[in-house]
Structure formats: C-alpha cells, structure tokens
Amino acid sequence: MKITVTQEKLNKALNNVSRIAISKSTLPILSNVLIRVDKKKVSLITTNLDMAVKDFLPVSKSDDGVITIPAKLLSEFISNLPKGENIDITTKDDKVTIKSGKYSSTINGVPADEFPDLPEVDEKSAVIYKIGVDEFKASLGQVIVACSNDLTRPALTGVYFNTNNNSLRVAATDGYRLAEKELIKKVESEVKAIVPSSSIQEVLHSINDDTEEVEISFNDDLVRFRLGEVEIISKLIDASFPDYQKLIPKNSDAEVTLKREELIRVTKLAALFARSVGGSIICEAIPEDTFSVKSIANEYGENDSRIETSVDKPGRVNLNSRFLLDALNALEEPEVIFKFSDRVAPIVLTNKKNKGYTHIIMPLNS
Amino acid sequence: MYDVWKNALAEIEQQISSANYSTWFQDTSLTSATNGQIVINVKNTFYVKQLRNRYYDIIKTALEHNDVKVDSITFEVKTTNKTKVRPREITATNAIKDHIRTIRQSTIKPPSTENGLNPKYTLETFIIGSNNDLAVSAAKSIIEAPGTRYNPFFLYGGPGLGKTHLVQAIGNELIKRDPSLKVFYTPISHFYSDFIEAIQNGKGKEFNRKFQKLDCLIIDDFQFIVNKEKSQEEFFNIFNDLYQLNKQIIVTSDRLPSQIKTVDERLATRLTMGGAFDIQLPKFEDKCAILRAKAEQIGAEIEQEAIEYIAENVTTNIRDLEGELSTILLMSEVRGLTPLELINNGSISVNKTTKLRPTSPKQVVEKVAKYYGLSVSELKSKSRVSNIMVARQVAMLLLSKELGLSTTKIATEVGVKDHTTVMHGIKKINNSLKLNFILRDQIEEIKEKIYG
User: What pLDDT is attached to residue B324?
Assistant: First the structure.
C-alpha cells in the first residue's frame, strides 16, 4: 500500500476519525484506524462497535492495500509534522513507514483482517433525507441538551427522529424536560428512530466549514450521516420513545412574552441563591406588568428580580434554574414566549416568531 | 435450549482470544433452533456482520458438538423487551403503585390468625445487623429449645425497630417446627380488653384456663400495662403459672420493666430473669441492607446512591425508613424518574431525624428549671444545693446532646465558671444515668416538654 497526501488533508481526516478510536476498549484493534486503498479510493475508518466513522481522503498518488495503525499515535505524529509538506505512507508487511521531508518513522501496524467488518446501509431500502448543514447543526444542538445519560432508560439517551403530519421532527427528553424541533417541513417518507446522543455529538463535531449538506439514511437498525467526505454510521437505539406529543400542553392559563437576554440574566442571578436548594427558583407572573424570578437560600439570603412585561393572568411555578437556562440558551430569538398553567403542569417555551422549536420543563415541587 | 448455547459458548471461548470472546459473544443468546434454522440474538447491528463472516463456522461446529442440527444461522438484533432494564416511560404506569398499595394494605390489615400471629413475619425477612444480632441469636436458641434458656425472653427498644417482627417470627417458626404447639400472640392492650370482657361475662376462669394451656405466650407492647393493677395481677398469675410449667414467655416493651412506673416490683424483676435484650437503632450499613431488601420485596429498582441518601437522612426508626422508601418509589413511578434523579433535582428531601424542632438554649434552660421547680436565676446561681446542682447538670447534658453546643457556650448558658466545670458536670450526670432510671425518665420527660 502506498499513499501520498498533504499534511493538512491527512491531519484533518485523522482528526475526524480518531475521536471514537481513542476510547478504552477490551478489544485492542478498536483503538486502531483502518486505512484502505481500493482502486485509488483512500478511506480511513474507526469504530467503537456503536458507531463507525469513515473519511474519504483525497490523495495525489496511491497504490492499493490495507492496514490498521494505532489511531492516537498516528494522529499525534501527523499533527506535529510541518504543514504544507507532502507525506508518503508505505507499508511493508505490517510495518508502516511514514516519511515527510526530513522526518521519518516506522509504526507497527496490525493486519486489517482483525478489524471488524462494518455494517452497511442498504441503499435500496433506506429512507433518505437531505438537509442544509446550518439548519441541521442548529436544530440538533437545540434538542440534544434535553437528552438523558441514564443508561437504564435507553430510549431517553438518544434523539428521536420521527415524522408527524408529513414533517420530520427531532425530539429528546430526560423525563424532566423535553425539546422538540421541526427539521424538515415536508417529507415524503416516514421514519421513527432513536439515534444515540453520542453519535449525534460525533456528527456535530465532524461538521466543518466545507460541509454544505447532511444526508441522513435510515435502515431498520442503522443510520448513516453523510457530511461531504465523512460518513458516520451508527446503531439505532432499539427502544420505544415516549409518545411525547401528548406531553406537550396544548393550552395554557398564562402566557408571557419576555426578552430572552433579560430572562437569562435574572435566571442566572436567581440561580446563585438557588444552589443550596437544588437550583429551585420561583417564577411568578403578577398582573398587570410584572414577571418575577425569585430564589431563597436559607444560609445566604434571597434574590428577587423583576421584568416588566404585560401580564393578563397571575401564575406561579417552581423550576430548576439550570433547565431554564439550558432552554433559554437553546432558543434563539430576542423575544420568547413563556406559557404555564398550574404548578404541576409543564411550562412551555417557544420563540416568539418561529414556533418550530418547543421546549417544555416539568416544575419542581414547591 | 439455553443450556446448549452456554455449552457452545464455553467451547467457543476456548478457541478464540478472551478479548474477542468478550467483545463479540458476551451479550449473545440463542432464541430459536427449529429444523436447523438457528437464530442468535446480538447486541446491535455492528455485531451481525462480524459474527457471520468470522465466526460462522466456529458457532456451527460448537452447536453441532452439542447435537444441534445446523442448516443456517441468522443473527438478529435484540429487541428491547428482552433486555434486563425496566421499561419506564414518562407516563406513570400503575403496576408499582398497585403493588405498593397491596403491600401497604397487607401491613395495615394483617391476616390475623387464631393465634394472633401474622405469617408474613418470618426470620428470613428479618434483617440482622449489629443493632440486633444478640436478640436474634437468643431468639434462635428459643426456637431450638423453647422454655429453657431465655425464659422469659424480654425484648425492648424504641418504636419501629422490629420488636414485633422478631417475636412474631419466633412464634411462627415454633409452629412451623411443631404444629401441635399452642402459641398465642397478643398486644398487652388486647390482653386487658379480653380480660375485662371475660370478667364481665363471668368467664374469668375460662380466660385463665385458656392461657394456662399455652406452650408459648407472646406479649407485645408491655409498656401499656401502666395503671391497670387488676389486670396486672391477672397477668402476673398467668405469668407465674406458665413459668412454673417451663413454658416460653416472650415480652416486648419500649423500655426496661423497672423503668415503667406502674409495674409491680415483683413482676419487674421476674420479667428480666431470663435476660433483657435490646434492639437498637440500625447502623448506616444495616439501614442500607434493610432498604435494599424492602425494595427487592416490592420489586422496584433503586440506585445505591439513593439508598445511601435515605439511610443517611432517616435516623429515627425502621418504620420511617420504609415509609420514605415507599414514598420515593411511588413518586419515581408517577414522575417517570429514577429515585436518584428525584433526589438530585430536589423533588424529594428526606429529613427524619430525632431532633424534631430546633430550639434555643434559653428555652432548654427554662424548661429544665421549670421541671425541677426552680427559677432560671436559681438554676444559674452558684448554689451547691444538690437538687439545683442536678438540674444544672441536666441542663448542661441537654444543651450538649440535643443542641450540640460547645462546652464554653454551655458554661455561659447555665452560669458556671468555665468549660471544665461543664465537662465535669456532663460526665457526672452521664455516670449517674447508667444506674439511675428515675433520672433517665426525668430527662426523657424534659425532652418531651422541650420538643412537644
């Protein structure tokens, strides 16, 4: 096998693939990156058996062959080589020689037949969606905050892709809060799939300036995200996601429009005093023109901030300040709508203009 | 069929490296093997290709060695309902709630039998810890040979620590071993009402005879005997009769008989002849063990951290411990969160400690002075009259034990010179407490006044 490639290109590709290889694993081969040259097509592949990352590397010269190399070592070595230089990689048996100008090193590789065979998306039966990268990145970032990391409830550790009334939606919940976003307004095919949040994180990390479009292909138990040269294949979580549409309150007693920045500031202030009570803060709407955010810490004192806005009906609810901040940071418009009913019904937060994103939070016991 | 797969796995394990084995075969299972069509469950889709391409032959051979006909092997990804985790959704399911309710009901309405014993109390469900091991080993030796060594068996300790459970377990076990034995369990209050009823109906003698036939008499909550001399006499007679016949007598109470004011001295000394055993508050580890066992009994899952949190924050008794656990489990089910999540997000705060109401040092001193019929200034004076000194020392003890004040602070509160005097005073009163039950009672009464 032989490859000639610039340092920048190889470094970038290795950065993309080596993240998931650098995890501890019982099977040593999983910390290696597989480099394959097949009819001038060069690909780098890593896997942790929950997902796999594949990067197609544009090269100037190559001969066919395949080898695996410890990913961490290779990526650190390459990143320290001078930029702009060409790198030659050649293999002889299991020895991999890397040359760049005056620098040269030989790394012990492992034969590729020990590397696991990876599943592939069946193009014929796959359900495929395409979406602009900015939209994808923003939307997934907005919902992934609500994912749970509790492994005893697998359904909640992922992002739920589902179609509802011909629109593709993504949702996530950890049981205390739920975030939902409309990803594509009108789609033809249907899907219901939970993608592990770690895989989504990986996809979001892999997005770079060159990426323009994300292609998502679902199989029964597999999903593939294609971002330019990078492909991420992930298992799907085999569990049923809660019927979350039922959880979003349709009506509410009180509705208040608030400036997002201002609400963030008062929530942060209140959170300082809420540390000893598990982040619990009290949000209260007082007719006709006050929205107040309060917190009381027995030892330190208390905090009471007010925002002027028009209020029709009174209402009061205890919330976890961290959840509220997460939600406010996920919203994007200068003005947001804060809806609530009674002290036990979840509150609903949306942007004022674009209602595509909904975030609900369960109140705390008061 | 599952054993076949285990055998096959054992064979496969020897043929490949342990890293490969644990990676690829750990979570596999054989789901069907009809007509040579083998279906094997795997963890996720990443495992399918690997197993099919690399390990097909090994699996086939291993299965054939176990006399399984193999025509084809398919690999399927596991479906959720086969995983071990409890499927819980955000909407409440009623299963656990019902379960808790039935368990609670069975606690409220024990299926009482003729002998008064509730069969649900057994030794197997009694959790042994350093707080009760002595009492349990005595109980076991009673079961082996009733009416011999520990007779009467007197068990005492605070409420909700398992006294009733232990003595009923003895009764149940005795009957289990020898169904012909006549065992009778009754709280002392029922003993009275039955006795009075019997007298009123002119059946006093029958009542007496009924008891004399017993092989084992279990009397619960003996402390309620207070102020009922007539029935106490009857009890004393029955007690004596049974004791003479070497029948086992078991009595529980929340304190020693000598500390119960109205108990006749003759009865008090007789009750503790066979030794008095106490059940104390469980230690942290014991509490964790109790909670875990209880959760298992209900069939609910709870994190170790949550158990530790409850154990740490409930310091009153086992009943409260179980109460908190049920509350948390119920709430966890309603909210769709795990118990630990509930605790971490502040929805639940457990705080059952003996210090019911924080009170001020001044109040404590006032209450002590009032109890001993002194004025506060008298108590704080330099007087060395003995009753004033005792009152002062009691105040010191309470300030230190109940409010946790420093000795220097206590010195100013009770008007003595410095902290050494306080240290001496507390030491002295602690020493006399060991022997002087009247003083102990007095202090308990003062405590009730302070917190009540």
Answer: 81
Lowest mean pLDDT among A62-71, A177-186, B1-10, B287-296: B1-10
> Given the DSSP bridges, would you call strands A290-297 and A280-286 parallel, antiparallel or unpaired?
antiparallel
Sketch out chain B's domains with CATH numbers.
Answer: 2-81 (3.30.300.180), 106-278 (3.40.50.300), 284-344 (1.10.8.60), 361-451 (1.10.1750.10)
CA-angle at A136, arms to A19 and A224, nearest 5°: 55
Three-state secondary-structure class, residue B56: helix
User: Looking at the partner chain, which of B20, B54, B341 has a beta carbon nearest the beta carbon of A175?
Assistant: B341
Q: A249-361, what's its fold? A: DNA Polymerase III; Chain A, domain 2 (3.10.150)
Judged by CB atoms closer than 8 Å, whether chains meet at A118 and B54 is answered as no
Residue from the list A26, A117, A279 with its beta carbon closest to the beta carbon of B22: A26
**CATH number for the domain whose boundaries are A127-246:** 3.10.150.10
Helix (H, G, I), strand (E, B) or coil at A33: strand
ipTM above 0.90 for this complex: no
Residue B348: the pLDDT is 66
Distance from CA of B281 to the nearest CA of A (A): 29
Torsion from C-alpha of A32, A72, A208, A154, nearest 10 degrees: 60
Q: With an 8 Å Cβ cutoff, are B77 and A118 in contact?
A: no
Q: Which CATH superfamily is domain A2-114 in?
A: DNA Polymerase III, subunit A, domain 2 (3.10.150.10)
Question: Does B92 lie at the interface with A, CB-CB under 8 angstroms?
Answer: no
Contact check, Cβ <8 Å, B335/A50: no
For B45, the closest of A26, A235, A247 (CB atoms) is A235
Q: Can the peptide bond before residue B152 be classed as cis, meaning omega within 30 degrees of 0?
A: yes
The structure tokens listed for A233 are 């294949």
Residues 109-148 of B with CB under 8 A from A: none
Q: Are A86 and A4 in contact (CB under 8 A)?
A: yes
Above 70 in pLDDT, residue A288? yes
Contact B45 A221 (CB under 8 A): yes
Looking at the partner chain, which of B19, B91, B335 has a beta carbon nearest the beta carbon of A27? B19
pLDDT tens-place string over residues B69-111 = 888 888 888 765 433 333 333 333 344 555 555 555 554 444 4
| Radius of gyration of chain A measured on its C-alpha atoms | 25
